[in-house]
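hi! just following up on the protien thing from before. the input was this:
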Amino acid sequence: MKKIIFLLFIINYKCFSQEVKFEKIFSIKLQVEIDDQYGEFMDLKSGYYPYSNGVFDGVAKGKLLAQGGAFNLYSDTYIDGKTLIEDDIRMVLLTDEGEKIYCEALGLILKDSISNTNDFMHTSWRFRTSSSKYKWLNYTVGFADTEFFYPPSPYRAQHNIYRIVK
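and the predicted 3d structure came back as:
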């Protein structure tokens, strides 16, 4: 009986489990203009941080155009010294080949309000391009884990964006 149960467990595991594999799309390093003048939106503190500089590599290499930025909504609730920030990102990448890739992302940042550092930032990404070489990005959803840099780094953050592959 134990052998039958074990065999059923193995068959069930093999039939219904899948290993998720990720492939890196881009690593985007960027600089933003920091503005401590927050606005109010729906009784939440908000800020807009335009991009001033950046580079990327991955499936293509190039630079971040100085247009676009990040719109943040800060939670009004502090839990254990943490602030939850909703992040709305818009940017345009220019590849070394002259192709433009529009990127938009939505995600969350968890910020330590005592040390003023970010614990994590996770975002989901969508892309648009008219490039025939990169048209597959038009139907790709990316997921990013972001690293934050602090002075003396010339960059503020790096979005490491992946897609799920079969």
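The radius of gyration is 20 Å.
The mean pLDDT is 84.
cheers
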